[in-house]
Amino acid sequence: MPLHAYLVLAALVFVIGLFGVLTRRNAVGILLGIELMLNAVNINLVAFSRFRADLAGLIFTLFTIAITVAEVAVGLAIVIVIFRVRRTIEADHLDLLRG
Amino acid sequence: MRIGSPELALLVLALPFASFLAIGLIRPLRRRGRPAAAVSILAMAGAFLTAGAMSWQGIPVARGLNPAVLWSWLPADGGPMASVGVWVDGMAMQMCVLVTLVSLLVQVYSWSYLADEPPPSLGRYYAYQSLFAFSMLGLVLSPGFLQMFVFWELVGLCSYLLIGYWYDRPSAAQAAVKAFWITKLGDLGFVAGIVMLWSGTGTFDFWPLFQAAEGGALHVDGLTTIMFLIYLGAVGKSAQFPLHVWLPDAMEGPTPVSALIHAATMVTAGVYMVARAYPLFALVPSVLTLIAWVGAFTALLAATMACVERDIKRVLAYSTVSQLGYMMAANGAGAPEAAFQHLTTHGVFKALLFLGAGIVIHHFHTNDVFRMGGLFGQRPWVGGSFLVATLALAGVIPPGFFSKEAVLAGVLHAHLSVPFLMLLATSFLTAFYMFRVVFLAFFGHAPVHHAHPEPPVAMDAVCRALAVLTLALGLRAAVAGHHVEGPAWLPWISLTWAFAGIALAWATYQAGRLDPARLAAAFAPIDFLARRRYFLDDIYGGTYRLLLLGLSRVVGWVDRYVVDGVLNALSAGALRAGDALRRIQTGQPQDYVYGVALGVLLLLVWAQLG
Question: Interface pTM (ipTM) of the complex?
Answer without folding.
Answer: 0.78
